[in-house]
């Protein structure tokens, strides 16, 4: 048994060649596919696929990142994958899932056309107005609120894809970083 203050010498040899890329690719593609299928599910069940309900599908990404890190740890046993490899496989998983989720959002918005996008804009403007009404009066600013409504009314396919990518990366990394640190040993 190794003393606790000495690093494991076999950690590099224990992780098979390409395990980080292979696990990141497998879990990233699977999580991205689930995000895309969630959008289709929302659309075909009569829900707005570009609404805040979309975020529920993105919540699979942190779990996929943690699962890829856990499998990397299992493959490295009895050695240790180390924090670098663990964070790398989690980050790769999140990045691939985010790219697929954003591509799915853009693709669905393109396939559904301008009518669906106009409906999404109208829904976003309504949500923005409700949020503005509940904002305390001392924090209200007429110029800011006007720009906020203009921005919501000018929503595009690229804005939807960019927002999906950003949310996926943020949510994914919120799960991948702690899991990578925890699962490094």
From TrEMBL:
<feature type="transmembrane region" description="Helical">
    <location>
        <begin position="54"/>
        <end position="72"/>
    </location>
</feature>
<protein>
    <submittedName>
        <fullName>DUF4199 domain-containing protein</fullName>
    </submittedName>
</protein>
<feature type="transmembrane region" description="Helical">
    <location>
        <begin position="84"/>
        <end position="109"/>
    </location>
</feature>
<keyword id="KW-0812">Transmembrane</keyword>
<feature type="transmembrane region" description="Helical">
    <location>
        <begin position="165"/>
        <end position="183"/>
    </location>
</feature>
<dbReference type="InterPro" id="IPR025250">
    <property type="entry name" value="DUF4199"/>
</dbReference>
<keyword id="KW-1133">Transmembrane helix</keyword>
<dbReference type="Pfam" id="PF13858">
    <property type="entry name" value="DUF4199"/>
</dbReference>
<keyword id="KW-0472">Membrane</keyword>
<feature type="transmembrane region" description="Helical">
    <location>
        <begin position="23"/>
        <end position="42"/>
    </location>
</feature>
């Amino acid at each position: 048994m190794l003393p606790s203050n000495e690093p494991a010498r076999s950690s590099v040899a224990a992780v098979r060649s390409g395990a980080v890329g292979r696990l990141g690719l497998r879990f990233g593609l699977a999580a991205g596919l689930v995000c895309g299928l969630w959008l289709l599910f929302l659309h075909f069940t009569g829900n707005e696929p570009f609404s805040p309900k979309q975020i529920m599908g993105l919540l699979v990404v942190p779990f996929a990142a943690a699962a890829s890190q856990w499998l990397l740890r299992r493959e490295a046993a009895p050695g240790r994958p180390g924090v670098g490899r663990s964070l790398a496989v989690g980050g790769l998983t999140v990045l691939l899932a985010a790219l697929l989720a954003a591509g799915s959002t853009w693709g669905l918005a393109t396939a559904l056309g301008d009518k669906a996008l106009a409906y999404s804009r109208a829904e976003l403007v309504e949500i923005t107005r409700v949020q503005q009404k509940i904002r305390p009066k001392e924090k209200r600013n007429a110029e800011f609120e006007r720009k906020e409504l203009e921005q919501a009314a000018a929503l595009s396919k690229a804005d939807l894809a960019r927002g999906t990518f950003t949310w996926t990366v943020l949510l994914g990394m919120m799960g991948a970083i702690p899991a990578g640190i925890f699962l490094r040993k």
